[in-house]
Design a protein that fits this description.
The chain is α/β, with parallel strands linked by helices. 48% of the residues lie in helices and 13% in strands. The longest helix is centred in the C-terminal third of the chain and has 16 residues, at 246-261.
């Protein structure tokens, strides 16, 4: 078990909630300094783990809100180095899981990239466009440098593939609640409970659910459906883009989500 894996596991175990809360923020949006303050606001409001996005020109898994945030961050000159400095600061308090696309990893080389994350204090890595069959080198590099490579599963993932993914999962399994891209949904999908049950049956790490969760009610429904972690992104990124005080707006929303997941004795 590597250091990042252990830190993420400890955060899930110590959350005290029905499910650990993992807000997503886009590094460099609306600027680097403010994105760090948004992350700090998430932590103050009850985040157990943070997912930190790296802006990218062709984000295949991102819906329009997160895509626009990444585009704005790139236009403002945001770089991977800048995002990692935000991650370094936030990782002093909670585990940080970096979300980026495969070309950013491959451009630097798997070993160099994983070493950079390990030195920065990043606990985990999500690469949504890297399938299991093409991830051996990244997995080995992450293992060597103490970074948990977090896999994704979807409602369409077969049982055989779910077993192979679960056997090699580190940190947690990211269960995608719907087929499609990120974004807010009006209702919580009734397809979540079955995929959570299947993922939990094939893995020894926690299973967190994301894509489409935007309210406290959704978060509570996710936990009731068997999620051990709840990931919220688009709603928070939209709030950051619309508010005159982005950290304050995000802190209020994360506080509501945390309250929805709280156990009665909290």
């Amino acid at each position: 078990m590597n250091a990042g894996h252990e830190r993420i596991a400890a955060a899930f175990a110590a959350s005290g909630k029905h499910a650990a809360l993992m807000p997503y923020l886009m590094g460099g949006f609306p600027d680097l300094a403010t994105s760090r303050r948004i992350g700090e606001a998430c932590i103050a409001a009850g985040a157990d783990v943070l997912e930190l996005g790296v802006p990218f020109s062709d984000p295949l898994a991102d819906g329009p809100v997160i895509h626009a945030a990444g585009t704005a961050a790139l236009a403002a000159g945001c770089t991977l180095t800048g995002v990692l400095e935000v991650g370094r600061a936030l990782a002093e308090t909670v585990p940080v899981v970096l979300m980026c696309y495969a070309s950013l990893v491959l451009a630097r080389g798997e070993w160099t990239f994983a070493e950079l994350l390990g030195r920065t204090g990043i606990s985990g890595l999500i690469v949504p466009d890297m399938p299991l069959e093409e991830s051996d080198a990244v997995f080995a590099a992450c293992e060597e440098h103490g970074v948990a490579l977090v896999p994704l599963v979807a409602p369409t993932t077969t049982e055989e593939r779910m077993a192979r993914i679960g056997a090699r999962a580190r940190g947690f399994v990211y269960a995608v609640s719907v087929v499609g891209i990120t974004g807010e949904r009006a209702t919580f999908s009734d397809r979540v409970a079955p995929i959570l049950a299947r993922a939990r049956a094939h893995s020894t790490v926690p299973v967190a659910v994301g894509f489409g969760i935007s309210t406290g009610e959704h978060a509570a429904q996710a936990a009731a459906s068997g999620a051990q972690g709840v990931i919220v992104g688009t709603r928070l990124v939209r709030a950051a883009g619309e508010a005159t005080d982005p950290p304050g707006a995000v802190r209020e929303l994360v506080g509501d989500l945390s309250a929805a997941l709280a156990r009665p004795n909290q």
